[in-house]
Each structure stands twice: as structure tokens, then as C-alpha cells.
Amino acid sequence: MSTIELLFPVENLQLMKYHVIRLTPGEDLLSSLENYLRDQKIEAGCILSVVGSLQHATIRLANRGVPSSFIGKFEIVSLSGTVGIYGSHLHISFSDKTGKTLGGHLLEGCKIYTTAELVIGHMPDLTFVREDCPLSGYPELVVKTSSLHS
């Protein structure tokens, strides 16, 4: 039987704020997103929607320690995850012209082909940090109250 862990009670929080950005050809999806988070001082957020295309994709496939790179024209099928200036955790799926779809952990090296339109939800009362977890062996999400908006 699994246990569901409540990371943070949600009473008395401000409403989510929204950011809509567009990336242009040649921009790196991850580094552009991280730069935007830093510029806007977003400590806790989530990806609400992304559409666009890639000309090069670099991801970490499940249970693999090394990056995998793909060159071609790809549609971004999905991008989901938690984001913030103290660390993000993002998974991407993309498909080729035959509809073959791949997905994994988003890494630097995903270059925009035509555009990428991102909608980001920003939770101004919260801060997302990553702390080492002895159960998974990876830095995992920890939710705290925001130091910027206390």
C-alpha cells in the first residue's frame, strides 16, 4: 500500500499568478526557461501548457545516466513539472513526422525549431527546493513558505 505525502497545506495562499512566454528559433528550452524564472524571481511554479517545436532534443531517458540526443523536426507533445529558481524537475515528450513519440527528463540542448509557447503558473507564497532523499537517492521536492513574499 502506498502512502500519499502532503507536502504543504494549501489554506490561505494567494491565487496563482500566470506568465506566458514565447521562445524563438534556436533558443534552448531549458536554459531560456531557467533564465526567465531567475529574472522574474519565481521560487515556486508549474508548467501549465506548452506547445511548439524542436530541431534538436536532449533528454535523459528513464533509468539512464547519460543524455540521449535526437536531431530532426519534432512537435512538443507535452512538458510538465515543477519549476523554480532553486531547481526544477521537468519531463518532455516530443514526436517526429511519423508520430513516434519519445519522452524523458528535460536537459539543456532542446533547441526551438519554430516557436515554443509556455504558460507558467507561479505560486508566490511558496518556495520549491530540492533536498536529498534517502528513499529515492535523488534530490526531491520540498515545499516551504516563500522568503520573497513573507
TrEMBL record:
Asked if Transmembrane helix is a keyword of the record, the answer is: no
What the entry lists under PROSITE patterns is as follows:
PPC
Enumerate the GO terms in the molecular function aspect. DNA binding
UniProt-listed InterPro entries: PPC_dom (IPR005175)
Q: Report whether Ion transport shows up as a keyword of the record.
A: no
Report what the protein is called.
DNA-binding protein
- The source's superkingdom equals Bacteria
- The positions making up the signal sequence are none
Origin organism is Endozoicomonas gorgoniicola
Q: Which CDD domains match?
A: DUF296
